[in-house]
Amino acid sequence: MIRALxxxxxxxxAQELAIDTIANNLxxxxxxxxxxxxxxxxxxxxxxxxxxxxxxxSGTEIPTGIQVGHGSRVASTQRIFSQGxxxxxxxxxxxxxxxxxxxRVQNNDGEExxxxxxxxxxxxxxxxxxxxxLLLGDQISISPEVxxxxxxxxxxxxxxxxxxxxxxxxxxxxxxxxxxxAGLEGIGQNLFRSSQSSGTPQxxxxxxxxxxxxxxGFLELSNVxxxxxxxxxxxxxxxxxxxxxxxxxxxxxLNVANNLRR
Length: 262
Description:
Helices cover about 25% and strands about 30% of the residues. With about 260 residues, the chain is of the alpha+beta class. It has two domains: about 1-80 and about 225-260, no CATH class; about 85-220, no CATH class. Strands 7, 8, 11, 15 and 18 form a five-stranded antiparallel beta sheet that branches. A three-stranded antiparallel beta sheet has the order 12-13-14, with no helix packed on it. Strand 12 (about 150) and strand 13 form a beta hairpin. It is elongated, with a radius of gyration of 27 Å. The mean pLDDT is about 90.
């Protein structure tokens, strides 16, 4: 009975974390560039009461043996980097990556971090920055005299000046990709940090050699699917409920054993 109590408690702890993960996904359903998280479970250690293939007292081989598990735990939370839907905004500095890759951004400590959220703006010095004022890693500045901004699929930023009819190149946006993007460390503000698991960042030109292309005037929405998250939440809630009932059943059986009389 005691084993059942601890096994059920481990299941309740795992499902509680599952609900927390689903809640975070749902909270970010309208966050540009957000990538949903999936939780992976694994079973715990088994107590072997009889080894499979052991010899019984009569000399025959036992085909299956007896093993009793001790519940479950969360093995990992995996970020799913599938493409989100696009929203047309017609803003010159709203960019979306169609395909593989991340924008490079410099945080306040000068560290290079990465994002899929392409809602860029200009600061007081005309530099392209994120909504939090973090500099785009490509160090692109746009003069106030520029009357029109165009950004090509391969990341070339051009602007039109009043003194000339032909657009002039202002800079180039490069993308970064990783061997294992699921290994990136999320640090909030739509940003990711590279880790040993993600591999080293590989910088390349958009729309070339497998890197995604850049589309101007669009934003990538969250890849959270409401129906899937709601179904997952119901499954986790029912699993939590069943585990709690297992604890109640084990408690009732212990109570019966405790009240035995000769």
